[in-house]
């Protein structure tokens, strides 16, 4: 790290080894739903995402809230997004409309034998105040959180040979969603379903042997044709076991669906992985594909 106290310019570097592959770490680093889980540097800080558009030229706006203090406004602009390898974003931090700092943040991801290596460089210009100490503390704690989140994140992907509007329509439709959701041989019995921001889906998933698994999905964000963000609860108003999201990207008439889940604890992640959640999740996306393509 170098620091020029006269001009208030700093270059800060951070590194973390993460026990997750680069593709999973990338989603934990960039997906708004995952960022919302790890962004707070401490329990005393609440981070609220006001806007999140994760694409080159897109913007992310968040508010850091600490009781008794004015909100810290952070505006991020995505400049480079090279999936699984590198991101570059600008960042301006303001308080009460007064800019405190401007920064260029570069993140490089590389694969390792044990998972991934994340290297972050922050080129910081302190404006209204010397922000180096705050950045060092905040980024350090945030990246510690990120490492833990990535290690309990599960990512499922599928490319469906259909336009995004059709795939979205099969997912965010109260009649069709229960017909394909769940692994092969499972069915859904709905109690309530309201597929919108602040809506919910209360249902039982019924296994091939008749075993009933109560579920409750709480929808926090529904951005039509692009993404949804929701929580998974063990039964109606039960304990949360994962923060989840689904994103939909269209390319040349096909749709890439990414389903991500950040499990509440590392133990729950390992349990889910152990009983075959990845394979069962792929079966679920396969049923979505079958419905969309009318097979």
In a nutshell, what does this entry contain?
By secondary structure, the protein is an alpha+beta fold.
Describe the structure.
This protein has 295 residues and is α+β, with helices and mostly antiparallel strands. It has two domains: 2-151, START domain (Alpha-D-Glucose-1,6-Bisphosphate, Chain A, domain 4, 2-Layer Sandwich); 155-293, 2-Layer Sandwich (Alpha-D-Glucose-1,6-Bisphosphate, Chain A, domain 4). It has helices at 22-30, 32-38, 132-150, 164-171, 177-180, 266-274, 277-293; strands at 2-4, 9-18, 46-52, 59-65, 72-82, 86-95, 98-112, 115-126, 153-160, 187-194, 200-206, 212-223, 227-234, 240-251, 254-263. The strands form two sheets. An eight-stranded antiparallel sheet has the order 1-2-8-7-6-5-4-3, with helices on one face. A seven-stranded antiparallel sheet has the order 9-15-14-13-12-11-10, with helices on both faces. Helix 1 packs across helix 2, helix 1 (22-30) packs across helix 3 and helix 4 (164-171) crosses helix 7. The model is unreliable at 1-6 (pLDDT under 50).
Series of H and E elements: EEHHEEEEEEHEHHEEEEEEHH
Poorly predicted parts? 1-6
User: Shape, please?
Assistant: elongated
CATH fold name of the largest domain, please? Alpha-D-Glucose-1,6-Bisphosphate, Chain A, domain 4
The average pLDDT is 95
Q: Return Rg in Å.
A: 20 Å
Structural category: alpha+beta
């Amino acid at each position: 790290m170098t620091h020029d106290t006269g001009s208030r310019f700093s270059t800060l570097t951070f590194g973390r080894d993460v026990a997750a592959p680069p593709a999973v770490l990338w989603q934990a680093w960039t997906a708004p739903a995952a960022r919302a889980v790890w962004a707070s540097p401490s329990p005393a800080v609440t981070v609220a995402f006001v806007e999140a558009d994760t694409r080159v030229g897109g913007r992310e706006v968040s508010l850091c809230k600490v009781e008794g203090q004015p909100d810290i406004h952070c505006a991020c602009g995505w400049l480079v997004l090279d999936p699984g390898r590198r991101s570059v974003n600008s960042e301006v931090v303001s308080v009460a409309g007064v800019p405190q700092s401007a920064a260029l943040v570069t993140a490089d991801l590389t694969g390792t034998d044990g998972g991934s290596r994340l290297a972050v460089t922050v080129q910081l210009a302190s404006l209204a105040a010397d922000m180096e100490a705050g950045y060092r503390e905040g980024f350090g704690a945030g990246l510690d959180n990120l490492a833990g989140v990535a290690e309990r994140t599960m990512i499922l992907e599928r490319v469906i040979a259909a336009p995004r509007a059709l795939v979205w329509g099969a997912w965010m439709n109260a009649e069709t969603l229960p017909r394909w959701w769940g692994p092969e041989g499972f069915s859904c019995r709905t109690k309530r379903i309201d597929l919108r921001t602040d809506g919910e889906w209360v249902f039982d998933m019924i296994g091939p042997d008749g075993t009933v698994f109560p579920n409750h999905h709480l929808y926090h964000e529904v951005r039509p044709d692009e993404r949804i963000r929701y929580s998974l609860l063990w039964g109606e108003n039960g304990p949360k076991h994962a923060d989840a999201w689904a994103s939909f990207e269209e390319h040349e008439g096909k749709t890439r669906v990414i389903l991500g889940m950040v499990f509440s604890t590392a133990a729950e992640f390992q349990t889910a992985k152990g009983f075959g959640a990845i394979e069962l999740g792929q079966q679920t996306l396969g049923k979505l594909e079958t419905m969309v393509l009318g097979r």
